[in-house]
Amino acid sequence: MAKLMGGLATSHIPAIGGAIHEGIQQEPYWKPFFDGYPPVQNWLKNAKPDVVVVFYNDHGLNFFLDKMPTFAVGAAAQYNNADEGWGIPTLPPFQGNMALSWHLINHLVALDFDVTTCQEMLVDHACTLPLKLFWPEGPCPVQVVPICINTVQFPLPSAKRVYALGKAVGEAIAQWPSDHKVAVVASGGLSHQLDGERAGFINKAFDLEFMDSLVSNPEWATQFNTLELVEKTGTQGVELLMWLAMRAALSSASGRVREVHRNYHIPISNTATGLMAFSVD
Ligand code: DHB
Ligand code: FE
């Protein structure tokens, strides 16, 4: 059976792609952010996952407001990045793993999750930038299965429901008849609000409590309903739901979940940035 070997979570912000492109990672503004990643990159060089399942929210590239699935799973051989309007350079295509995609889809539908299956799927900065941050050199060396969770258009799935989805994904990975090593990636958060009266809102105390909860009490955030999460983290801060899905997936792996590394830095753009890595020992 496949081995679920760990989980990663990182913020995504289009400007990160611009900074990588310009090679300005060591400038004072960016250094505290980019300095978080080498320990995780080095851990990945040893741990060597073959495939990653990426929980992220599409921001209007693949789905727009006229058609917005709550949960969507990629089932393509290849995922292309495209210009989504931020002006950042696109990254080369990412290779899929269709066997894992369909295994996940079958498992999720059997458990009554009504997922949208996407045999063609464009991937935006939220899917591509974490992969570039974790594997900065050359084309992405791991295969990818993208899973979109809607945090863009209300109604959003509850934290409780997202946790259940993540748990089901973890179970499915553990039951996948394959010798692949699989990691789960969460892309989004932490607290931020890009528009409206609270634009620039950041809640460091909540972010740090949330990160701690993922270590010791992973279901902690499921106590909050969606509006409470928006209130505490900002309209776009609800992207932290991805982190919950990732951690829930690990909770169904066999083995002890151990924190490998974390970083937290305020702000990049309008966002409180977080990074965490977990191994399943
Ligand atoms: C920013 C943050 C996001 O999560 C995003 O999707 C786009 C932009 C920002 O802080 O600029
Ligand atoms: Fe976002």
Briefly characterize the structure.
This protein is an alpha/beta fold and 281 residues long. The chain has helices at 14-22, 31-34, 38-47, 98-110, 125-134, 159-174, 204-216, 226-233, 241-251, and strands at residues 3-10, 51-56, 71-74, 78-81, 94-95, 116-118, 122-123, 143-149, 181-187, 257-268, 271-280. 33% of the residues lie in helices and 23% in strands.
Please, could you describe this protein's structure?
The chain has 281 residues and is α/β, with parallel strands linked by helices. It has a single domain, classed as LigB-like (Protocatechuate 4,5-dioxygenase, Chain B). 33% of the residues lie in helices and 23% in strands. An eight-stranded mixed beta sheet has the order 6-3-8-2-9-1-11-10, sandwiched between helices. A three-stranded mixed beta sheet has the order 5-4-7. Strand 10 and strand 11 form a beta hairpin. Bound molecules: 3,4-dihydroxybenzoic acid (DHB) and fe (iii) ion.
